[in-house]
Amino acid sequence: MKKDSNVDASLPSTANRDEGFKNKAFMPLVWQSGLMFILWGIFCWQGLVTVVDIWWGNEIFNHGFFIVPGAFYLIYLQRKRLLATPIKPSLLSLVFVIPSLLLYVIGIAGDIRLFMHLATFTLLPSLIWMLLGTQATRVILFPLCFMLFSVPVGEQLIPYLQEIAADGSVALLKLTGIPLYRSGLYIEIPQGRFLVAEACSGVSFFIASFVIGSLYAYLNLQSIKRRAAFVLISLIFPILANIVRVYGIILIAYWTDMEYAAGADHLIYGWFFFAFVIVCLLGIGEFMRQSPYEPSKVVQQNATVSVSMPVITSSIAILAVFFAWIVNISNISNSHFATRLSVLSYEWDNNCQRTDWQPIVVDPDSEEFGFLKYRACNVKVYNAWFSEQHNELVSDLHRLFDPERFSLSHTTSITTNGLNLSVYHIVSSSGDKLSIIRFYEVDNALFTSAVKAKIYQVKNVLFGSSRGGRLWILAADGHDVSAINDSLSAILSHL
Fold it and tell me: What pLDDT digit, counting tens, does each position of 251-286 carry?
């Protein structure tokens, strides 16, 4: 007799559908799920270690610890519907599994943590889809999508949220009739000067509101239109609320001559205001709510569980192939370790005094900072070498300036020696002005775009070359773009 690789077992209808989890028919599914979860953890261990580090170290993403457990609890709430839905493994999920694996490999090759984290938390629901099949996956579609909130993304919005908060608060202050002067993110009133710092961007409000709003919409709203509308409100409401918060702080400073607008009062005001915002958001949700949440009704039919060994073996084989690829990439990266030290030390003018400006660059292998000869001490040059062993050339952690001391005023662009460069014009709290440019050097190729530099590095690793590179940053006093042009030409002549 020919042995069928697909074994079907029926679960009889019972008064208590929860008993289905104890039925022997589900045991193959249990061990398959456990095996897949273990394989996922082994394959994505680098992504998991780095993401936990971010969750722990950055308060913006502390919620990440609760997302996956919360998603599994939401799946548990749908257990009765799952027990009444045919479970049949599907290879259709490969349309998400394969891209997730490729994204993870690219993340490893380029040390792009965002790609690693995104791939990690798209691969898990994709594997669940593979095990349960399309029909059962539809039942738990939101919990699977909810897992994506584990990805620590959102800090990139900080500059935009700062700008929105500054624009909105200035508009309200003008309506109130308060005299002010704005320079970049600095707002000056007769009583003092304020900086709309990163802590005032409201990014924590924004992310928390998005997560809570999505969860509330799923649990309490039935209509797709109402759910979409409430999620949209949860995105807009914290932005508007943060504008009011910044406006309120400056207004209190104006009324009280700065007595209650700094220090602990700012923190307390922020926490209380956040709680108030969430309560208001949930109040809007209750107004839109159609009916209290009740577990979905059980369809009265027998559930079937199909065990597909080809699906299991195929998934294991695919994971093994990609894992071997990652190991090979790691070996290539380690074999091309290189360090370049001094580049322009002989060009430094040692008579120039140090400056208050210096970029924030995380963990370079070597770095230089000084003034070029014959540039009248008005152009500062910084360069740093990254081997990409335990550091990253292109990283969101690198900053052109200290946001606590400088603020971005505006951005322009210039073209020099065939390079199209963005010029960042910044201003300090004391009114000092600087113009900054940045570019990357990888294998003697120059890049003004961080994205293009990263893509070039990834290509190098995938084809067996080094991904090390150098970061260049030039800053000119005032907004002297011509001085930057001259200094850049001098530097390029030595590269």
Answer: 888 887 776 655 545 555 666 777 888 888 888 888
At 191, list the tokens.
Answer: 């009583």
Give every CB contact of residue 261 below 8 A, 6+ residues apart in sequence: 249, 250, 252, 253
**Contact (CB, 8 A) for 413 and 423:** yes
Write phi, then psi, for 41 (nearest 5 degrees): -65, -40
Alpha carbons within 13 A on the beta-carbon side of 219? 16
Task: Give the C-alpha separation, 199 to 403, whole Å.
Answer: 10
- Single pTM value for the model: 0.76
| Helix, strand or coil, per DSSP, at residue 55 | helix
Strand pairing partners for 11? 303
Q: Token digits for 159?
A: 């500059």
Q: Do the beta carbons of residue 152 and residue 56 sit within 8 Å?
A: no
**Is 262 in contact with 252 (CB distance < 8 Å)?**
no
Cβ proximity of 318 and 137 under 8 Å: no
Joined tokens for residue 427: 């201003």
Burial of 374 (0-12, 13-18, 19+ CB in 10 A): exposed
Average pLDDT of the residues in 61-79: 91
Answer for the pair 172, 182: CB distance below 8 angstroms, yes or no: no
Domain residue limits, the chain = 6-153+303-333, 155-288, 337-492
Q: Where are the beta strands (DSSP E) in 405-462?
A: 406-416, 419-428, 433-442, 445-447
The rounded distance, in Å, linking the Cα atoms of 192 and 251 is 11
| Tokens found for residue 167 | 């624009």
Distance of alpha carbon 393 from its chain centroid, rounded? Answer: 17
